[in-house]
TrEMBL record:
<protein>
    <recommendedName>
        <fullName>NADP-dependent 3-hydroxy acid dehydrogenase YdfG</fullName>
        <ecNumber>1.1.1.298</ecNumber>
        <ecNumber>1.1.1.381</ecNumber>
    </recommendedName>
</protein>
<dbReference type="Pfam" id="PF00106">
    <property type="entry name" value="adh_short"/>
</dbReference>
<comment type="function">
    <text>NADP-dependent dehydrogenase with broad substrate specificity acting on 3-hydroxy acids. Catalyzes the NADP-dependent oxidation of L-allo-threonine to L-2-amino-3-keto-butyrate, which is spontaneously decarboxylated into aminoacetone. Also acts on D-threonine, L-serine, D-serine, D-3-hydroxyisobutyrate, L-3-hydroxyisobutyrate, D-glycerate and L-glycerate. Able to catalyze the reduction of the malonic semialdehyde to 3-hydroxypropionic acid.</text>
</comment>
<dbReference type="GO" id="GO:0035527">
    <property type="term" value="F:3-hydroxypropionate dehydrogenase (NADP+) activity"/>
</dbReference>
<comment type="similarity">
    <text>Belongs to the short-chain dehydrogenases/reductases (SDR) family.</text>
</comment>
<dbReference type="InterPro" id="IPR036291">
    <property type="entry name" value="NAD(P)-bd_dom_sf"/>
</dbReference>
<dbReference type="InterPro" id="IPR020904">
    <property type="entry name" value="Sc_DH/Rdtase_CS"/>
</dbReference>
<dbReference type="InterPro" id="IPR002347">
    <property type="entry name" value="SDR_fam"/>
</dbReference>
<keyword id="KW-0560">Oxidoreductase</keyword>
């Protein structure tokens, strides 16, 4: 995945997985467009990466929960032909029972995790397809396939990321496109989503052995990308588990393809 004079756009770049993605991609020779809300953090990271790796780094201050700011990033993706890679990393988790949550909690998670990711993917894809080259990395979560009592909205948004991205992968495969779309599904990762208290669950509440560092997570995800993986589970040792899950899902779907009600639902 070595690149020269190619640009990667990374959302949620001011900390956590996004900052590590920015570092690793700069080390691979990518120029960068770093997107996040915190201008001071972006400026410090941009200076560090440009000095360390000699790449061009642009900061784009944007709150992707907001329509106008999503449009700013869309403009970069549709107008800058050097963009070869998009990392849709920005995300939000507010983990609490729905009955105890506000409508704003749901709105912001949906706006960032679903709406922004969808729009930026859709903005980048046409140019990538027309060039038959480019990579999109959509960061989901292991909670895309599992829901807790406190994760109904968050799990719902990450299930969307998984289903949405798999549909695009099928679309690209049917077109015999060389464009890549990788889905990354991290488990608990040591980022500020926990330490800032936004999630509603402190990092200290998680089992120490269950939490992966942001560096290890991104390095595993990029290794998966280099190996041609379409779906990467950084913490799952037995890769056959996903194959079994996907096969069972396909079998279940195939079983739905009939116009006859199941026998257990027929009136006797």
């Amino acid at each position: 995945m070595t690149a020269s004079k190619k640009t990667a756009v990374v959302t949620g770049a001011s900390s956590g997985l996004g900052a590590v993605y920015a570092d690793r991609l700069a080390a691979r020779g990518y120029d960068l467009v770093l997107v996040a809300r915190r201008a001071d953090r972006l400026a410090a990271l941009a200076d560090k990466l440009s000095t360390t790796y000699g790449v061009n780094v642009r900061s784009l201050v944007a709150d992707l929960e907001q329509e106008a700011d999503v449009a700013k990033v869309e403009q970069v993706l549709t107008s800058d032909s050097s963009v070869q890679l998009l990392v849709n990393n920005a995300g939000l988790a507010k983990l609490r029972a729905l009955a105890e949550s506000s409508a704003e909690d749901a709105r912001t998670q949906i706006a960032l995790n679903i709406v922004a990711l969808t729009r930026l993917t859709q903005a980048a894809l046409p140019a990538f397809v027309s060039r038959d080259a480019g990579t999109i990395i959509n960061v989901a979560s292991v909670l895309a396939v599992h829901s807790w009592a406190i994760s109904s909205v968050y799990s719902g948004t990450k299930s969307y990321v998984l289903a949405f991205s798999r549909g695009i992968q099928d679309e690209l495969a049917k077109a015999h496109s060389k464009v890549k779309l990788q889905i990354v599904l991290p488990a608990s990762t040591a980022t500020e989503i926990w330490t800032e208290g936004v999630s509603g669950v402190p990092l200290s509440a998680l089992g120490k052995d269950t939490v992966m560092s942001a560096e290890d997570c991104v390095d595993a995800a990029l290794a998966g990308l280099d190996n041609g993986e379409a779906i990467t589970w950084p913490s799952v040792e037995d890769e056959t588990l996903w194959n079994q899950y996907a096969t069972a899902s396909a079998t279940l779907f195939a079983a739905t393809q009939t116009g006859t009600p199941a026998s257990r639902y027929r009136i006797k």
